[in-house]
């Protein structure tokens, strides 16, 4: 096929094409979509607020657990020292008993 024939064939393929027609209710659909977008934003704000609230609650719970755990560990290590000193004081291994 010749180059000019291809060009003619391509140009002739557009002869039967008609201008595109828009949907007569397109403008109404666009307006309805704009009205509904305000509602979607408010629901998105609720989701964001709920997520932020859940994250804050999780952080507060984690901080509470961490502080109570560190206090418990401090009490346990202090308790072990107290037990050790009590054992050294009352159960001295150098004490001998004559029965």
Q: Give the radius of gyration.
A: 41 Å
Report strand %: under 5%
Residue windows where pLDDT falls under 50 for at least 5 positions: none
How is the main sheet built? Answer: none
Terminus-to-terminus distance: 126 Å
Class per helix and strand makeup: mainly alpha
Average residue pLDDT = 79
Number of helices: 2
Q: What coarse outline follows from CA principal-axis ratios? A: elongated
Order of helices and strands: HH
Share in helix: over 70%
Q: Total strand count, please?
A: 0
Lay out the secondary structure:
Layout: H1 3-13, H2 26-90
Descriptive account of the structure:
The protein has 99 residues and is an all-alpha fold. It contains 2 helices and no strands. It has helices spanning 3-13, 26-90. The longest helix has 65 residues, at 26-90. The termini are far apart. The mean pLDDT is 79.
Summarize the structure in short.
The protein is an all-alpha fold.
Descriptive key words:
single chain, 99 residues, elongated
